[in-house]
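Here is a complete protein record:
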Amino acid sequence: MIFTTDCSLRRRLCRGAVLAACGAALAATGLPALAQDLPKTVRLIVAYPPGGVADVVARTLAERLAAQTGSTFVVDNKAGASGTIAMEAIAKAAPDGATLGFSAISPLVLSPHLGKLPYDPLRDLLPVASVMYSPVVLLATSAEGSADMRAVLAKAKAQPGAVRWATSGPASLGHIMLEQLRATAKVDITHVPYKGGGQQMTDALSGQFEVLSTNAGPAVAIQVKAGKLRPLAVGAPARLESLPNVPTLAELGFKDANLSSQFGVFAPAGLPQHLQARFNTEINTALQSPQMRSRLTTTDNVPTGGSPAAFAKEIAAEYENNGRIIRAAGIKAD
C-alpha cells in the first residue's frame, strides 16, 4: 500500500536519543531547509500481516505522514518470528531515512533474552517515536465462576494448578505477566500456551480454561458485551475508557505484572540526527490528528508519542525487567 500527497542497552539507546534532541535544537536555530528534507519515498516496514489492528494503525500513520510531509510512504508487511524478521530488515537497511519500521518493542526487550538474533538490538536499531500502547486484558471464561481477580488468585492458592491461564505462547507478553503475577502472589497457576489468537479465542468461548490474557480490541469487546467473557483486570498505565470499572494489575498490587504492548517507529542505527528528530516531530503531530486518535481509541489502543529519549528509556526499562523475569522463571523460547 502506498500513501502519498503532493503537498550496556539503556546508555546506548539514550545516547542516540539525546543526540537526536540536540539535532532538533540545532535545526530550530537555523540549519538550512535542505537539511530538514525527508526522502521522497519512505518504506515503512510493518512487523505484522495485513488486516490486523497494528497493521491498520500503521497504515493510518503512513497516510498521515504522507499528508504532512509530501513524501510517499510505502507500507511493506514483513510478519513472522515475533517481529524479528521485520527488525532484521530495518537493521540491515541503509540509514538514510528511506526505511522505517513499525513494531511492538518485544523484538528489542523480549526476543534478545530467548536466543541469538540476526541483529544487535543494542547497536543496530534506533528508537524514533512511541506511537501507542495496546492494553492487555485478563478475562474469565465460563469455566471460572470467581467474581474478580482477587477471588481467582484465592482459588489458585487454595487449589494449586486448578486455574488454567491461556496465553499466545511461551515467552509472550501474557506469559511474562503470568510468571510475574505467579511469583508475586505466590500461587500455582497452570500455563496454557497457544500459537495464535484465533484458536485461543475459540477455546475461551467454549470454556477450555479459566483465564486468558489477550490484547484489547474489537473482538474482545464484542465477547465481553455479549457476556461470554468477563474482564478481571487490565495491563495498562490506567483504566480503559471502555472498561472503567475494571482495575489495572497495578491497582491490585501487581505493578511489575502490569504490562502492555508498546508500539513505535524504529530506524536503522546511524540515521542522521536531524532526520530522527524530524520523523519524531512528524509522528507526534500525526498522533494529535483526529484521524489517528479515532483509529487508536476505537480499537482500545492508547496514543503515546513523546521524545526519542523517553522512548529509549522505556525500552531499556522493559528490557531489564523482562530479562529478570525470564531468568527467574527459566522461560525458554518455543
